[in-house]
Amino acid sequence: MDTWTLNPCYLYRTSPVGCPHTFGEHVKSPDVTLTDVVFYFSVFADNCNAPLVSSLPHSSFQSSSQSSVGYAAHNAKLNRRDGAGGWSPMVTDQEPWLQVDLREQMEVTAVSTQGRYDSWDWVSGFLLLYSDSGRAWKQYRQEDGRIVGNVNSEAVVQNKLSHPVRTRFLRFVPLDWNPSGWMGLRVEVYGCSYKSYVADFDGRSSLLYRFNQKSMSTVKDVISLRFKSHQMEGVLLHGEGQRGDYITLELHRGRLDLYLNLAAKIWLGSRRVAVTVGSLLDDQHWHSVHMERFNRQVNLTVDAQTSSFQTRGDGHSLDVDYELSFGGIPLPGKPGTFLRRNFHGCMENLYYNGINVVDLAKRRKPQIHSVGNVTFSCSQPQLVSCTFLSSSSSFLSLPPPRPPASGGFSARFQLRTWNPDGLLLSLQLHPGPQTLELQVSGGRLLLGLHGSGRHRSEAPTGESEREQPIRAERITCRAADHLYSSGSPIPSFQGCMQLIFINGQPMNLSLVQQGLLGNYNELQLDTCSIKDRCLPNLCEHSARCSQTWTSFSCDCSGTGYSGATCHNSIYESSCEAYKLSGSSSGFYFIDPDGSGPLGPTQVYCNMTGELWASRHLWLRSTGRKLTAKTSYRSAASAEQLRAIVSGSEQCQQEVVYSCRKSRLFNTRDGSPLSWWLDRDGERRSYWGGFLPGVQQCSCSLEENCVDMNYFCNCDADTDAWANDTGVLSYKDHLPVSQVVVGDTNRTGSMAVYSVGPLRCYGDKSIWNAASFYQESSYLYFPTLQAELASDISFYFKTSAPSGVFLENQGLKDFIRVELSSPSAVTFSFDVGNGPAVLAVKSHLPLNDRQWHYVRAERNVKEASLQVDQLPLRFLQAPADGHLRLRLSSQLFVEVSVSFDRESSVTYTFQEPFSVMQNRSSQASSVSTDSRAREDVAFSFVTSQRPAMLLTVSTFSQQYIAVILARNGSLQIWYHLQTDRSPDVFSPALNNLADGRLHRIRIHRVGKNLYIQVSPEKYTLSSDAELILIRSLTLGKVLQAASKGFIGCLSSIQFNHVAPLKAALTNRGSSLITIRGPLVQSNCGALAESTSHTLQGETHTSGGEGEGEGPSVHQNRWSSTREASVYINTF
């Protein structure tokens, strides 16, 4: 069924205008003006997911090579068995790729992959490139670049693109494949066609959209377009008005700048301030721009990056006179003359407030005026680039073309890199053993000439060192690993090059790729793979980001923070923390939210709390109501004050109202004459000493008012000076932000109002504690917000040998801190790059009932773990790995569990159910198959064999068993038909009882069984489903003579059920049966501590065959089936 969404567009009084991506054909733009605009919503079906490859002809497929005719590229259609059942390249192909031509520009939303039919050939990871022409390619970037592929030859894996790609050509570049086989690929692409309106600007042209009236005033603007260019500079859009309003959208140094002003005064000599978004936008590939403005609020999006900001000026409308120009800013009265550099490139689907500007221009409508040569097809040249991937081994070696008749040598090329140093060109001169070198050094170009004695002379680029003719024997854009100049190694160039001309002749890189010209190493042709690692800026707290080709770094100077990403505050969070460190009273910077977004602020600490002082406000009779804002001597913002108050044990603020004939509450209707505003701007009329809502003063509470007929001294309304003094202590209302004094308009009325310092005491985060008295105790918190960075710190004391401090999980990602042994704390997490573990071991026990400090931090650059004063442990993050930690569950305490031979955990299903109702949680799998299926996953560590790991049993005497045989090999038993023998599979023949952590995943669809540890697909004798599942058991099955299990089990999942988690958090439930001792443990730490004792160890017990099944024979299973139904495993 289609999903219906609402798409904002515009409707004019005459007829509707077209909107991008509406359902069906675009409605042609009528002859309308920008007056009388009515906003509406167009409804369209979001169904851009049709298969695009299955109907393509053979000619739409190309590849770098093919193993033989049967492995040709055109056999690579999903679920097809043509030829050899898919595409496979030659074994000698060092840069394999499969290319698909969609025949026209399409919008691509997803891709699916499959291995070669009935084989051991599949691709487990790949890059996806796209191109308009099939020559210049751009990489589709996910978080870590590569896209997850297949784990076997038959299952289909679909990857939905986080942002659609509009392209004609797609190229699949394998990165990883089955190590026991070879690359095999079948593909499908999903998407839809779309309508394109294109205009080509040659750098001397523009389109003018002219209004039918002198000025156009709008409070809301929506501008969207796509563009591509190879120029770094150029105006995309410009409009201005006589009152000083203007809007300019332009490329500057490869980034997009937006200048927007609403009625702000521009002083002579003042500079216009731009909002800058995007980077590397001059790469000759399409980029999407979308700008929305409502009043002064603006959202500007380029590709996937959005910047939100408030415009300059006091106005709320944009007043533009006469016209808007696209592609340049023409000078009035001088056709063809422009004030700034024009845009040189193509624009597509250019919409201004719902008006399709290109469509109007193409149909020569009168409101569009064309300046210069604007055409309506994109004819921009496709510049073919190459990428030097390695700073140590990349090179491109070319034979020199014939020199010009005048002799000499010339080289011309464009380059782009982040690295400050690298050798660009090395040329062997003839005659004589001399070498000419061109390099980047410290970000500047240097030209050097080397003789046989390694003497080096340099000249500024563009000047000749010597004037004798130079004849090139070989041109090499490289440096050898140990090429030395002046005694120092020169790194190879790492970056992109294009438009390479030697002696005035262009170098055809396609011939290089085909092996017909020169040779190369570690070179990626047809694409520039440069990546801006500082966009978005992953440095926190406004720190400056700098980068090289492979990494980025953060300059924390002046931010008040430290660490790899400037995450850690260098200041304490409260005066209480300074007091604990032995500091004396004085002025200090505190950071009330630690590593959060609020910065540090200076306060005075007298070691009982924080203090801010305010001015006294003297208010005399003026005949009107007086309002005064409180001014705090601290530079703290309202958000910082709120954080300080919220984190303190208690806060208070004294207020003093001195009066002469100036009342507070003494009115006939009880309305207050004076009041104050709290930190949220809410009106408060209670006075110091009373709780909110009571219009009284402290003298009433203390029963000492000067006139007991009134609740405040000032309400007595005498000619003598009096005062009402009290302390405000309700934290949620502090600090006082504003005071309003009303009764000063009578003759002789005077009032002096004083707001005292805000004083806060204590720190709620320091002396709070929670006690856990049993293994199943836990606390729930909201999901940890830790996508890019997080830090966790706490004190603990315990006598237990192990236990989990905290854990938060996602679908696959997790983060966990635990006491893994009496003397070790472990910090583990997985952001998609595989589990990472940091451990700090102490030479003294940590379960000594004394307080110990733990701090764990993880960011995109590194992870660290600190325990007490022990050495800090670090773990570097992979350079191009996953960045975001995606968590979904609540933050809570959960444990892995260690078993002994008599231990077991049984989870009894509450009611019989069919696994047909439980869909696989793998979102990447594409299948409409409704056959019976199971999805089982768990991790374990053991050094004991044989062992019973997991058993699932049904009311109909079916069962599944996962065991370790006597030789430590994994065995899977499936007994689906009671009148037949069970199916037994051994996917891993090596010994898994090796003390290491192993992850097992079993997936069944019908008769097909897939096991993660093996590339092979197994076939069951029956496709029957499990009918009426009764229980799942971990560990020893009673009355089955099994050996049980000794070791650690964790992360257990059966379809939608997590039995171990349910067992530990629901003890006492009738659905859970636990037998024998269970001890909280960490499987990863257990694996680390036991693996070194198992190296070289052999198992000598038991003399029966290597392939024997569970610790009981098949007939023994038959005789104990009824007993196994009632006993669960852990």
Automatic annotation (TrEMBL):
<dbReference type="InterPro" id="IPR013320">
    <property type="entry name" value="ConA-like_dom_sf"/>
</dbReference>
<dbReference type="InterPro" id="IPR001791">
    <property type="entry name" value="Laminin_G"/>
</dbReference>
<dbReference type="InterPro" id="IPR000421">
    <property type="entry name" value="FA58C"/>
</dbReference>
<dbReference type="InterPro" id="IPR050372">
    <property type="entry name" value="Neurexin-related_CASP"/>
</dbReference>
<dbReference type="InterPro" id="IPR002181">
    <property type="entry name" value="Fibrinogen_a/b/g_C_dom"/>
</dbReference>
<dbReference type="Pfam" id="PF02210">
    <property type="entry name" value="Laminin_G_2"/>
</dbReference>
<keyword id="KW-1015">Disulfide bond</keyword>
<comment type="similarity">
    <text>Belongs to the neurexin family.</text>
</comment>
<feature type="domain" description="EGF-like">
    <location>
        <begin position="530"/>
        <end position="567"/>
    </location>
</feature>
<protein>
    <submittedName>
        <fullName>Contactin associated protein-like 5a</fullName>
    </submittedName>
</protein>
<dbReference type="InterPro" id="IPR008979">
    <property type="entry name" value="Galactose-bd-like_sf"/>
</dbReference>
<feature type="domain" description="Laminin G">
    <location>
        <begin position="198"/>
        <end position="378"/>
    </location>
</feature>
<keyword id="KW-1133">Transmembrane helix</keyword>
<feature type="domain" description="Fibrinogen C-terminal">
    <location>
        <begin position="566"/>
        <end position="612"/>
    </location>
</feature>
<keyword id="KW-0732">Signal</keyword>
<feature type="domain" description="F5/8 type C">
    <location>
        <begin position="48"/>
        <end position="192"/>
    </location>
</feature>
<feature type="domain" description="Laminin G">
    <location>
        <begin position="768"/>
        <end position="1083"/>
    </location>
</feature>
<dbReference type="InterPro" id="IPR000742">
    <property type="entry name" value="EGF"/>
</dbReference>
<keyword id="KW-0472">Membrane</keyword>
<feature type="compositionally biased region" description="Polar residues">
    <location>
        <begin position="1089"/>
        <end position="1101"/>
    </location>
</feature>
<feature type="region of interest" description="Disordered">
    <location>
        <begin position="1089"/>
        <end position="1118"/>
    </location>
</feature>
<feature type="compositionally biased region" description="Basic and acidic residues">
    <location>
        <begin position="455"/>
        <end position="470"/>
    </location>
</feature>
<keyword id="KW-0812">Transmembrane</keyword>
<keyword id="KW-0677">Repeat</keyword>
<keyword id="KW-0245">EGF-like domain</keyword>
<dbReference type="GO" id="GO:0016020">
    <property type="term" value="C:membrane"/>
</dbReference>
<dbReference type="Pfam" id="PF00754">
    <property type="entry name" value="F5_F8_type_C"/>
</dbReference>
<feature type="region of interest" description="Disordered">
    <location>
        <begin position="451"/>
        <end position="470"/>
    </location>
</feature>
<dbReference type="InterPro" id="IPR036056">
    <property type="entry name" value="Fibrinogen-like_C"/>
</dbReference>
